[in-house]
Every structure is written in structure tokens, then in C-alpha cells.
Amino acid sequence: MKFPGSIPSISDLQAIINVMPLPVFVKNRAHRIVLLNDAACEFFGHSREVMLRFSDYDLFPTEEVEVFHAADDKVFESGAISENEEQVTDAAGRSRTVITRKRRVRLNTHDFLVAIISDVTAYREAEAHNYHLAFHDPLTDLPNRALLSERIDHALLRRSRTGERCTLLYVDLDRFKEVNDTHGHQSGDLLIQSFASRIASIVRATDTVSRLGGDEFAVLLIDRGDPSDVDAVCQRILEAASKPFEVDGARVYIGASIGIAETVDEVTNVSVVKNLGTVERFS
Fold this sequence. Notes:
It comes from Hyphomonas adhaerens. This is Sensor domain-containing diguanylate cyclase. By secondary structure, this protein is α+β, with helices and mostly antiparallel strands. It has 2 domains: 10-124, PAS domain (Beta-Lactamase); 136-282, Reverse transcriptase/Diguanylate cyclase domain (Alpha-Beta Plaits). 41% of the residues lie in helices and 27% in strands. The protein is built from 10 helices and 12 strands. It has helices at 10-18, 38-44, 48-53, 56-59, 62-78, 121-135, 145-162, 176-183, 185-200, 227-242, and strands at 24-28, 33-36, 82-89, 95-107, 110-119, 166-174, 208-213, 216-222, 245-247, 250-252, 255-261, 281-282. It has a 5-stranded antiparallel β-sheet, with helices on both faces. The chain has a 5-stranded antiparallel β-sheet with strand order 7-8-6-11-12, with helices on both faces. A hairpin with a 2-residue loop joins β4 (95-107) and β5 (110-119). The N and C termini lie far apart (83 Å).
């Protein structure tokens, strides 16, 4: 195959793109890779021979290939430069997040697609980790005040549209300070983690259990149409708190008190959650 101008052969073009640090590949209109650099082979985890011999459907999951080809077709048809964030599974089965820049090139009356890949997996993972830290309690990994407040806002919006019932519980552990004073803060932390695990197993996936800080928790119950459902959840929480905890080689007993807002309309900000104790007490 000959190219016009100062680049007479594929081997010369191969030598040029091999010096590029980012993965680069070239496809024809049939979606077959016809050229790729060493960085692309390393990124995909396949040899050059494999990448050139097999189709995308042989190398990648079908759902990924469909995304690739839809983006390719738009570039071939419009000639516009494309930049998309995509998921790519390499030969080892690792899913990578990439930004792929694609452009159509015409050589000897034939259209080709040139693509350059930027691997942003580490950046996206760090971004997701930072987001998680911002909205979750570091000790229990439960949603924190900020995330609870956001979900209360969403619940209020749904309620205004659908009339969906919501209930907010404020859970305060009894005698927790005694455990801290007797066994130390590390044991207190273990107790908090154990109770968090217990309470999280009680509610549904659509509900939210949040740690507000210290020995204070909140539970946002969504679409509990029957008040008896709320009473049942409260009873299970009290039972979970009353069961013994193993800390520092000793068995300790605590309890819990629950404040209830039967309608979330009364609560517009998580900063007033503590006032729920004056709404109704369940203990």
C-alpha cells in the first residue's frame, strides 16, 4: 500500500506513530484497525498481529463495540472531530475510562479514522473517591449530613409531585458515653461501626441511614404508606441497639431513643434533625 507525498509506505508511518506516547490507532470504514502504535498495543494488552487480525467484536465486549462503532460512524459521515469518554476493557479484563479523540482522514480516495486515546481511569477513580469522602462518614462509611440533606431535598421534591410519604428518624444511642469512658474511644468506635452495620441491615435499599456524628444517627424512610411500617422499623432499631456488643473483650449493653418526624415537610434542613426529639419519641 503506497501513500502519496513524503511518506512512501506503511512501515514509515508505523515508525512515526510509534514515537507517540499516547495510544494511536487507524481504522478503515469497515471498523477494522489497519494501523496502531506500540502504546496502543500496550494499552489494549494485545499484540499488533492480534489487533490487526481480529475484529472489535472479537476483542471487546459487545456493548462497548456498539458505542465505539456509533461514534466512528458519526465521524465517517460528518467528518467532524469527535471527543468521547468511553469504557474500554483490555485483554486482562480491566475496565478503563478513556477519552478518545477521532478524526476522519482521506487517503487515495479512501476514508480512514485516526484515533488518539487518553487514559483518565486514575483521574476518574480519584474523583469518585473524593466525592465519596465528601458525602460519607469516614468511620462507618454511611452517608453523612451533607448526603442526607441532599436526599431529604429529593424526597421533598418527590413528595410535592407524587404525594409519596416520607419519615425521618433521629436515633440517639443511650449509655454510649459510659462505654467510651470505661473501655476507651477505640472500643467506642468499634461499637459505632457495629451498630451502623446493624441499622443499615434493617432498612430497605430506597431508605437512607446516616451518621450525623458521635452517637447520633438519622434514618430517612421513603414511601412508608402505613404508619405501622414506621413503628416496625423503630422497634427493630431498638432491638438492634439492645443486643449486646463485644468490645475490648467485654460484653456491653446500650440502648437507643428515636425521635420521629411523621412528615418530612417539617424538616427542610438536616441541621434541625436534633429537634425531632421534640416531635415524637419512640423508646
